[in-house]
Amino acid sequence: MTVHTGRHFLQIPGPTNVPDRVLRAMDMPTLDHRGPEFAELGFAVLAAMQRVFRTRQPVIIYPSSGTGAWEAAMVNTLSPGDKVLMCETGQFAVLWRGIAEKFKLDVDFIPGDWRHGADLAEVERRLVADKQHKIKAVCVVHNETSTGCVTPPLEARKLLDRVKHPALLMVDTISGLGSLVYEHDAWGIDVSVAGSQKGLMLPPGLGFNAVSEKALAVARANQGMRSYWDWQEVIAFNKAGTFPYTPACNLLMGLREAVKMLEEEGLENVFARHKRHSAATRAAIKAWGLETQCVDPNAHSPALTGTRLPDGHDADNFRKIVLEKFDMSLGTGLNKVKGKVFRIGHIGHFNDLMLMGTLAGVEMGLDLAKVPHRGGGVLAAMEVLKGHDAAQAPEAAVA
Amino acid sequence: MTVHTGRHFLQIPGPTNVPDRVLRAMDMPTLDHRGPEFAELGFAVLAAMQRVFRTRQPVIIYPSSGTGAWEAAMVNTLSPGDKVLMCETGQFAVLWRGIAEKFKLDVDFIPGDWRHGADLAEVERRLVADKQHKIKAVCVVHNETSTGCVTPPLEARKLLDRVKHPALLMVDTISGLGSLVYEHDAWGIDVSVAGSQKGLMLPPGLGFNAVSEKALAVARANQGMRSYWDWQEVIAFNKAGTFPYTPACNLLMGLREAVKMLEEEGLENVFARHKRHSAATRAAIKAWGLETQCVDPNAHSPALTGTRLPDGHDADNFRKIVLEKFDMSLGTGLNKVKGKVFRIGHIGHFNDLMLMGTLAGVEMGLDLAKVPHRGGGVLAAMEVLKGHDAAQAPEAAVA
Amino acid sequence: MTVHTGRHFLQIPGPTNVPDRVLRAMDMPTLDHRGPEFAELGFAVLAAMQRVFRTRQPVIIYPSSGTGAWEAAMVNTLSPGDKVLMCETGQFAVLWRGIAEKFKLDVDFIPGDWRHGADLAEVERRLVADKQHKIKAVCVVHNETSTGCVTPPLEARKLLDRVKHPALLMVDTISGLGSLVYEHDAWGIDVSVAGSQKGLMLPPGLGFNAVSEKALAVARANQGMRSYWDWQEVIAFNKAGTFPYTPACNLLMGLREAVKMLEEEGLENVFARHKRHSAATRAAIKAWGLETQCVDPNAHSPALTGTRLPDGHDADNFRKIVLEKFDMSLGTGLNKVKGKVFRIGHIGHFNDLMLMGTLAGVEMGLDLAKVPHRGGGVLAAMEVLKGHDAAQAPEAAVA
Amino acid sequence: MTVHTGRHFLQIPGPTNVPDRVLRAMDMPTLDHRGPEFAELGFAVLAAMQRVFRTRQPVIIYPSSGTGAWEAAMVNTLSPGDKVLMCETGQFAVLWRGIAEKFKLDVDFIPGDWRHGADLAEVERRLVADKQHKIKAVCVVHNETSTGCVTPPLEARKLLDRVKHPALLMVDTISGLGSLVYEHDAWGIDVSVAGSQKGLMLPPGLGFNAVSEKALAVARANQGMRSYWDWQEVIAFNKAGTFPYTPACNLLMGLREAVKMLEEEGLENVFARHKRHSAATRAAIKAWGLETQCVDPNAHSPALTGTRLPDGHDADNFRKIVLEKFDMSLGTGLNKVKGKVFRIGHIGHFNDLMLMGTLAGVEMGLDLAKVPHRGGGVLAAMEVLKGHDAAQAPEAAVA
């Protein structure tokens, strides 16, 4: 086996590269989760996450994966038999439906081709048709990690308002938060779902819910069974900076540092950086003569780019070659795009030269894997980066 | 405010002191949870945890607190209305009942005085009386972290066998595993529940279930709602060294190192060390003229010692003085022993001189807090430690 | 072999326990020693060391051990044949003489019994006798690490002034700086010599010189051969925040953090803490019926305590037992006190409970090594610590 | 000021990128430099460095920069007035001469144009002319870090043998060791000089000498003044795994891990990797239409590539732009090539994609700095890397 040297290129769309500062902040003695030093940490990260979610409402932090935070969103607000409207944007939407079904919700799943954001027009039609307001929640995936397509949550809010439907708006922004503009309060989101290992630049192990007043009221009235995920108990303990059960102290220590880094860079700059890298990546893909998985020019993800290989070429074989020859992990195609798509993560703790190393690895890998393509992708990406201006990208990236 | 120097003494019974080797093992770049390097890690920690639990059955690892692993034990095996037998050994037994009730189980809660292990004689009586086998599970806390009393799981198994009752035996060994002898298979445990931040010497953030074949069969037949905690999906993914949702990679990297350290020391030696430190601590308490919370000489915990202050003296005030003057965190008294009990953790990554620093801090703190006591505790503990032989302790510690 | 668990007790008088914050600060990517980020670091540590030495004069930082900084002090200011006055306070004074002789200096070595500070009365006599001012430098060891005896540099300055002798005053404060009051400028020191691995709480690898204007003038005039140690070249580069050869970047990163910690605690508090720990240690030794190596009540070191074993008992055998049984490193007796003395370091990143663990280890070790002694040392130390007042110590410690 | 995100590209030819494993190995509690655990470390690193230098002779490890190791080489073997033969290969040869002159050696400095290795033909002529064997040492720089030109030490050995001249052969392989083939014994080197912060992948702070039996004999006979650098005392202590003064413990802990990594990769593979990256870099430079500083096709350094900018373009301005825009540090031109040359380090812990990020940064920087150049450098480098074969490089790299 080849022994690799130098840094591994972790270019999957999460877990993402964790900054040294964050790893070092976690690499400190753990602490008494009931003592005054912890309370300081608790208050700090709760406030920090409110700033990141852009909310004055409570943020709940779970020792869990992002999947757990999805489950939390549902079990707090919904009961068996409740109808929910979901959109098939990709694998993570499919997984969300799976959870909903396990909790015996009645899922109305709007089909999609995995190459666009959510079909909001169809959402609107179904809401309009739902005169009796049986639909209790509309669930959308902000940044579909399996495809690289963005659905604008604000548009979903607008249509709910337009049709005056009282359903909760629940948004999975697991790979969106910290990479794409996100406004929990201003966009009228009821439940936001996030995880630590994407734009927040942490290892996996924390899940988040941001919750509106309306969602909280629904939760208070909800008799459904829950304990670990119960918002109310967490919120009650959080008032003292503590948690109802032992929190993942060291990940929280890392979270404090990670948000500090995001704020030192400035969230606006963070978002602009992701858009620029996304534009450069698409420029490369276009130059290679390949297709992005996302076909809606307004829906390209700033965080990752799903890339299709020509028919007859296995994306996983390509990924294997890139891993072995160049020590770079690229994201696999999931479920119905397995073998057809690979994903380039350009999310989190990342910069221009890391992107260029990444794209050079892809370009060389295409050659070694004998995938038909034109050269020039790397050059095209450099043209975008030199401009230091996303406007020069072939297509505008989504906010 | 005093700025403390030197190392904080984290002498709560969990989170415990994390070894440098474990913190450093976690302080490495995170990795592709779907790649070959992760699979190696996945297989390694699953096998390691089987060795620690002493089982050939599956171990499930959750990104969660230990509380989550309790919830997992219940939602996989029990359904609303199911009767379970529990024993009030202390606060963690009370919490377990709370979870059970939130999942609408019918809890038969055998009262206890928080100063003994579980009342197994009463358990036996109730099982005998349960001719129709309505009781679906007997739940005991192996090492009650709120009191320092041990309940021997093997005795519970023996009585279940004796009365030929088919109930599942579920054991919370959150603060037992890695500190006290534990034999998941040999003791016939159906579900073992553990967490990372105690004897496993990790930061909090991982929960564990070890499950018998019988428990798995029950789970397969159980129609109850669950997703995140569902054993079967995890076990299915584990066959490839992966997990159904993003695992807490860096905590797993730490887990691999922590088990390596336990095995380098030898689990037998680890257990003997905890017993010796427990004996030395009790010798000190006896010399001070104070009482241990545990009053059963056969039930003293090797992992922590609950200590009572005389009436009229507030244990939390004492703890505050010790924290401020000596930078040592001691465990608070929980729930009904609040203010009456403080807890000394001597669990995990610990040694004789750390214990002596701890006990000296307690002895000086008693003086500064004007708690009536005799001197000589520290000397008595040294006598035990010099012997390097737990047999010299005033009372034998429990296996 | 026993596998030790818990933290090693590193109670030698240097290298001392390095704080996690300092280790983590060093555990960051190294940097371009000619770039702007390094210059910031360079300026920061140079200014920080001026504050620690209490000087407005240049501080020179070498990638070297403290021994190198001694050599630097000599080769910059002295030439073969120059007469220097030194005092045999212990092994480090002997080593200093050794270096001087290797550089062909003419050493006038005032004998000592290794149980007192320097014989300043004799220094004064010899200076008075030196009518022709052949003596070019008086060299004293501030805190003699091999014995635990302090020589007050200010007294040396006063006597030089009193007898109006122009010799340079050179002070080895390797184990003094950061633990004992030190005033390079106010005390009129010409060359101060220090190292990183003592009160500065860093790993070994940095040596320091602080230099007076007078010393600099002497150096400028000195034709002696030198390159690596040459002050002038370093000082010239330091004006730009850089160094003439590659500096030990990561140790400098640690130094910045270590001084930050010292200043957060407050240097006055740091000094008081060391005195209090020294007093508690002596109280223990007195209670055990043992002797401190230092017999001058005004000369006890706040940083370490040399302790004598009764005749017929081998201090290194005792140390071996303590290391094996209790995982504690104590300082060995050096040179003429080999086997007779062991040294307890209570210097650097340290606190009350660490000291109590240390002293308990010594007390238990005395017992296991069958060294005749009374009990009660640990108790006596606790009495001092509870007072939180060095005034209660049996003998006043030296500033 | 721009806040940079992602990893800094440290592409100077030293200090080089330190692997996480090495930083973590250093990030552990420091230890008693006189205890048994240290002795194990001491023996381990001494043996490891013998394997890296390819010698059975002693290796001396100093807490110092590489410059200190140069000084050590001279003061151990030479005395004031001794004649030495040196070759002006670049700035580090100039510095070496500077040290020699400070120690009053009589330097015969063979001029060079900084674009070739040492003029060995001229060395041979001068040795032949030195009938009386006044020349005591021939000093060559193996890999001239200021230019990227290699001088083959074996050729120097051959010519010394050919002309039967007894001068010592002293080789500065500071930026060669661990990156270029090096054979201290087989090539008949008398003194090898190295440092930690280049191919050894450590932070700066350690200097090394490997010494032949002949050099040791010369040193034993040498009456010159020295103490810190004295080989004999170090070698004597090393027999017990210790050092005469406090060693830089944590850097040694890192060294043990770094050599482990080099040996896991295999030194042969390490050398081949450096050659391949050098070839790819030269391919890029050629494509850009720029010149390498080294003009001898047989002398190109595998470790770094000096690159010239066209007249009228300031290399430091270019470097500044690259640092600000792309967070990459490139090496500055030193001394007589200041402003004319920048240096690309491809040494140490490095891989193909890091190189591609580096070269993309250079190519974009050339554009932003308006340096006239052709495109295609990045593409040309990819062609070399895809081949995974240095043979495809435009010119063969030196062993």
TrEMBL record, chains A, B, C, D:
InterPro entries xref list: Aminotrans_V_dom, PyrdxlP-dep_Trfase, PyrdxlP-dep_Trfase_major, PyrdxlP-dep_Trfase_small, SP_NH2Trfase/AEP_transaminase
Key words of the record: Aminotransferase, Pyridoxal phosphate, Transferase
Domain of life per record: Bacteria
The protein's required cofactors: pyridoxal 5'-phosphate
The Aminotransferase class V domain, residue ranges: 37-313
Single GO term (MF): transaminase activity
Cited Gene3D superfamilies: Aspartate Aminotransferase, domain 1 (3.90.1150.10), Type I PLP-dependent aspartate aminotransferase-like (Major domain) (3.40.640.10)
Family from the record: Belongs to the class-V pyridoxal-phosphate-dependent aminotransferase family.
Name of the protein described by the UniProt record: Aminotransferase class V-fold PLP-dependent enzyme
